[in-house]
Amino acid sequence: MPSITLVESAKLCQDDFVAGIIENVIDVNQIYQLFPMEGIDGNSLAYNRENVLGDTQVVGVGDTITAKAAATFNQVTSSLTTIIGDAEVNGLVQATRSKLNDQTATQIASKAKSAGRQFQDMMVNGTGAANQFPGLITLCSAGKTIASAGANGDALSFNTMDVLIDAVTDKDGQVDYLIMNSRTVRSYKALLRGLGGNSVDDMYELPSGSRINAYSGVPIFRNDWVPVTQVRGTTTNATSVFAGTFDDGSRKHGVAGLTASEAAGLQVEYVGVHQTKDEKIYRVKWYVSMALFNLNGLAMATGITN
After folding, report:
1. What are the structural domain ranges in the chain?
2. Exposed, middle or buried, 38 (CB in 10 Å: 0-12/13-18/19+)?
3. Is 267 helix (H, G, I), strand (E, B) or coil?
4. Rounded to an integer, what distance in angstroms lies between the CA atom of residue 305 and that of residue 181?
5. pLDDT tens digits, the chain, 306 residues: what are they?
6. Could you give the 3-state DSSP secondary structure of residue 236?
């Protein structure tokens, strides 16, 4: 008589099951752990930037003073938007399928991760339309956008990085970050290998303890949300590299994230039981935006082909 089959034996025993969820939807954004977030009252923040300075002149004894023009300013408003999603879990599923992984907690955690990813996407690609807040691409002024010299784009070079860093004049030229897609980070490393590699002085340690490359003392953050779909002449997969400063809490420098001071960060709210279904609803939401306080605190090089 043949022995019991594997299929038949499986009816009498369950395979070992690993508790927890292995994250598989991942995009690297190393700057996210350092990005400053500031709480605001109300649903928007207004701030003034210098437009034209009041004039002065050089005079001699007895000369008439004609420098009478007053300074003018541009007022900018950054408004909060809402990233939101509902986690709904059936009562029977929660009651009978939560021994190893709590079904409700898992769904809430997934919504929270999705909200964080949506913020990171808008942090770079937000357009300011359709309830999005403006991201780095939109916030960068035309005067701080450095286009490639080549009609079809240019490969990354040390000269391009130097010009980009020099364009950031906020904080007396101190630059807090460089941001580029992983493809461009690899291209930067190829430049280093062409010079014989880099020293330990060209590295930057993140709060997590991991180390990343730096250029001229400026940390280079890999950010997979930076698109590689830019069109430049016949090139259709060009990208951008960013340089800039973080705000220091004074709301006068660089970029910072904004959130509601009375509801800072991600919020989880129990909505209640579904009216017509055996389901409980939990709402995950984040009132958030991003501000560029100083136009001199952000520069962008476009048309990078590698």
Report:
1. 80-304
2. middle
3. strand
4. 11
5. 577 656 755 665 655 555 554 455 455 778 888 889 999 998 999 989 888 999 998 999 999 999 999 999 989 899 999 999 999 999 898 888 888 888 888 889 899 989 999 999 999 999 999 999 999 999 999 999 999 989 999 999 999 999 999 999 999 989 999 999 999 999 999 999 888 866 645 888 888 888 999 999 999 999 999 999 999 999 999 999 999 999 999 999 999 999 998 888 888 999 999 989 999 999 999 999 999 999 999 999 999 999
6. strand
Residue 67, both tokens: 């420098």
What stretches of the chain show up as alpha helix (H) in DSSP? Answer: 6-9, 91-96, 103-125, 136-139, 158-166, 182-194
Q: Can you tell me the distance from the alpha carbon of 116 to that of 74, in angstroms, rounded to the nearest whole number?
A: 31
| Cβ-based neighbours of 49, under 8 Å, separated by 6 or more | 73, 74, 75, 76, 293, 294, 295
Which residues, 6+ apart, have CB-to-CB distance to 141 below 8 Å?
A: 295, 298
- Residue 140 token pair: 């960068």
Number of residues written out for the chain: 306
Q: How far apart are CA 149 and CA 152, in angstroms?
A: 9
Q: What six digits make up the tokens of 129?
A: 């339309």
Nearest to 140 by CA among 292, 305, 304: 292
Query: How far apart, in whole angstroms, are the C-alpha atoms of residue 31 and residue 85?
Result: 25
